[in-house]
Amino acid sequence: MAVRAVVVEADGGSRGNPGPAGYGAVVRDRDSGEVLAERSEAIGTNTNNVAEYRGLIAGLEAAAELGASEVEARMDSKLVVEQMSGRWQIKHPGLRPLAAQAAALVDRFDSVRFSWIPRERNKHADALANAAMDAAAGTVVQRVEAEAPRAVAAPDSPARVAAREAAARAATRTGGSDPATVKPSWEPRPSFTATRLILVRHGETEWTVQQRYAGRADVPLSDTGRAQARATAARVAQLAPSVAAVLSSPLSRCTATAEAIAAALGDLPVRRQDDWIECDFGDWDGRTFAEVREGWPGELDAWLASTRVAPPGGESFATVAERTARAVAGLREAYPGETVVVVSHVSPIKLALRDALAAGDDFLHRLYLDAAGISVFDMWPDGGVAVRSVNDTAHLAAR
Question: Is 395 among the catalytic positions?
């Protein structure tokens, strides 16, 4: 029987750093605290940090095998917790593949939260890790049965399966705000009850042409970008003659585009909103794609492999997704049945569209957004979403 929410406690260490190393991991039911699985292994001669990452990976693998969808990962390794949370850089090249492997496992769950705990609260995993280190050192110890998950429960009976399905159907009929619980339907919905978001990527800058990472650097619109902003403003005015608000990332390439749109809509005010700012690319900001590939090959591969990995000194896409989702939810609540224009950047717009389409992270690498492109989707009060257009650039071809 799959469990929904679990706690993973993990630890690892070595006798000498590097030295005989091993890890331990425990998976518990979040609500009852029952131990559902134990894992441990001697991993030869290694460092503490490698062993700690291996413990986390083993714990996440066990949680995935149990069918968990929500995980709280608890460790007494500050380094692993901070790196996996995207707050610390992964400087050691030997840890980057392990971090990427852990991040790929994280993406298999609906949610994962990392927490630091003191060693005295991690005694079970610590004991498993110490037994594994003893084994790596050739010390005879009492056998720890940690190779396989403990029995969780017998398979659901047909009656329990039917009851759970009936409960799911009942929850769908309540019309909650979570899009995942909305009953699929092709039936027309009244457009006047939907909040419509018109998402506009800012116009072109010099860095756009030069193919540079443009995160928090305040790069202005080029002459071409200003012309694109005017063309986009005319197109938005055609799409939505009545607009409740124009929002913008605080960076000038967005505010200049937003001001052109606001003027075309009757001199509406432009409201800056920090949640729509571009991803912070850290040390890569202003660098060309080729320069980043040459200077940070390992970091780039890890970043491309997982939305939870941040560029050196920067911000992960997972963090951007959290603030973008918060911003979208706020607009649904603040502007029921109205149209809102948002001028932003590639990363926040892609993430908003990913969520609107209920797509996976691969979507981020398969969608191209042109400068001054327009995307539109509707959100209904019951959580229903309809994407109407993605990266519309017909107005630019007409210039």
Answer: no
**Cα–Cα distance measured from residue 389 to residue 195, given in angstroms and rounded to the nearest whole number:** 15
Ligand-binding site membership of 253 (annotated): yes
Q: At what angle do helices 48-65 and 123-136 cross, to 10 degrees?
A: 120
**pLDDT classification of 144: cutoffs 50, 70, 90:** very low
Query: What pTM does this model have?
Result: 0.59
Choose between 191 and 19: higher pLDDT.
19
Q: DSSP label at 221?
A: B
pLDDT of residue 90: 84
- Single out the catalytic residue among 259, 278, 299, 315: 278
Helix (H) or strand (E) holding 23: strand 19-29
User: Which of 202, 259, 299, 315 is an active site residue?
Assistant: 202
Rounded distance between C-alpha atoms, residue 381 and residue 385, angstroms: 9
Which residues have CB under 8 Å from 280's CB, separation 6+?
215, 216, 311, 314, 315
CATH number of 5-136: 3.30.420.10
pLDDT > 50? residue 164: no
- Supply the mean pLDDT for the chain: 86
Q: Which of 379, 351, 385 is nearest to 365 (CA)?
A: 351
Instruction: Show me where the domains of the chain are located.
Output: 5-136, 191-397
| Residue 59 C-beta-side C-alpha neighbours within 13 Å | 33
For 337, list phi and psi in degrees, rounded to 5.
75, 10
Taking the domain 191-397, which CATH number applies?
A: 3.40.50.1240
Based on the residue annotation, tell me whether 278 is a catalytic residue of this protein.
yes
